[in-house]
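Attaching the record inline, Q. Sequence:
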Amino acid sequence: RMEGQGSYTLPTGTEYRGALRDGMFDGEGELLFPNGGRYRAVWHRGVPTQGKYTFADGLEYKDKKWHYCDGYDRRFYTEICSGLKPAGISQLTNLDPPRKIPEGCYDCGDGFYNPETRVIVDYKFRFLRNADDDEHEWIIRTCRKAWDEATDHRPKP
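Structure, as predicted:
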């Protein structure tokens, strides 16, 4: 079994770096996610006892008094850090410019979803999973879909 300091890469591409004991995460360690996020925690027998998640853009998640993108302040983290765009130019995602979504697909957060094939691929077009009925309905209802026409801002002549 794994013991001491080390790293382990899960089949999803998520990597653990830190202390291992009896084949489990135990002590200080962090999970590094393929999307750039990281979860630093103190682990006990494979279970985190305290930890902090940091998104790829540097935003730190707080489980108490979390005010990011709530009903009172709907700005993205990049808008909080860099300011809002001029009136009439919307920022659709935290990434600016947003990812280009393949035609007919949806951006579901960890990749692109094709409702025809019901397959989710990561942003490098590698297979992640097949969507079940619940995930399919959620994505169709809530996620950003590829546009049929360009919506770039064009100043008046």
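The CA atoms of residues 56 and 123 lie 14 Å apart. The first helix runs from residue 77 to 82.

More tomorrow.
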